[in-house]
Structure formats: C-alpha cells, structure tokens
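Recall the central idea of this unit: under ordinary conditions, the amino acid sequence of a chain determines the structure it adopts. In this exercise we apply that idea directly, starting from the sequence alone.
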Amino acid sequence: MAITSANQLELLQTAEAVAREKMIDPGLVIEAMEESLARAAKSRYGAEMDIRVSIDRKTGRAVFTRVRTVVTEDLLENYQAEFTVEQAKQYMESPEVGQTLVEEVPPVEMGRIAAQAAKQVILQKVREAERDSQFEEFKDRAGTIINGLVKREEYGNVIVDIGRGEAVLRRNEKIGRESYRPNDRIRVYIKDVRREQRGPQIFLSRVQRQNLWPNCSRWKFQKFMMVSLRLKRLHVILVSRAK
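Accordingly, the structure predicted from this sequence is:
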C-alpha cells in the first residue's frame, strides 16, 4: 500500500466513518492513524529513530518527519534520535539542550505485514477511545437502574449490553440460581463504575432489591424476578410458534 498513491482524503473519510460508527472524536481516530503510520515507517528507517507522522485535518496529506533532540554529551544514548550541541551546530544556529531538529523524510511503502500491524494499532486505539467514552457516560450513573440485553456468560459472570458498551453482572450479584440466555432483557442496578488496568469497567447487580424494588422483601423479590424472566421466555416461544 503506497501512501503517496493513495487518495489523501480517504484517510479523513475513513476517520470520520469510524468515529461516527463508534461515536468517538474523529481526531482520536486520526491520531491512531498517525501512530500506526509512524510505526510502519520505523520498520523501514530503523526502530531507534524518532519518526513521527502528521495528517493534515483538511487535506488528508500525511507528512513523515524525523526528530532529533539536543542533549548533553553524558546523556547521549540513542545516536539516531539524539545528538550533542556540537553535532547540532552542523544543522542549527546556536543549538541548546532540549531543542529538536525536525526533518521531513520520504513516505513509506507499506507492505502487507506493515499494513496489518497499522490496522491493529488503529483498532486498539479506537477500542481505548470507546472505553473512555463509555466511562465518561456512566461514571456519574452509579446507583441508577437501567435495562440491558444479555450477550453471553463467561466463567459464571454475565456480560450485558447496555447500549454504549458492555457491563459485567458477577455471579455473586445474580439472584439465587437465576440463569440467563443470550438476548434476555434484564433490569439491573449500576453498582460501580471504575477504571482498572484493563480499562474502564461497569459492574451491575440484581440483588440490590432496595434499589430495584424498595418495598419488596428479598424472598419475594427473588421469586418475582425469576417468574418474570420465565414469563418473558414463554412469550418468546409462543410468538415464534405463532409465526
């Protein structure tokens, strides 16, 4: 895939399409594209080089640059991305420690492997942006009640689709021996929303009866919810047979 021969506006169109689908800022998608292109460029120019890519937000033109930073001689470690004040005098007037030299370099030709790696970087960044967006939406909704759709079960925990993402209903937050099937609609209480090492997490509960049904005893609450779920399943069966 040659960056030079590609339609430059296609980068912007792709970013906007992904942003609309995932409901995130198009700028975040473009930043992911810049990072993925920079990684691909390092495979050609060398991993030690500080290669950066900037995509023009209006034209879609991708500019590849090499950045070198001026450091003191005793701190010089990476000869590809750093140089001393004396070395910098060949390219800069009165260089000082901390200044950078930015030089444009030719765009790269992306092979199949590099293109796949770039795609993975973009997907990872988009997922991170989705999780951050989800966290911002739900961080202040702990203690509220929502309706969700059961997606699957993992190690006894139920993964629930809550519209803008997924949440977790842990096994100890379920009602007795109540079981769930994919596409079951359930009423849940948002118990906690927090950031973890693997990303923002939303935890649900079905046993917080004082919040779901404040005037109902635990035994009556569990019985009612189990009967309600069975009636929903029976309704689905009857509708499918009637077709």
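The first strand starts at residue 51 and ends at 55.
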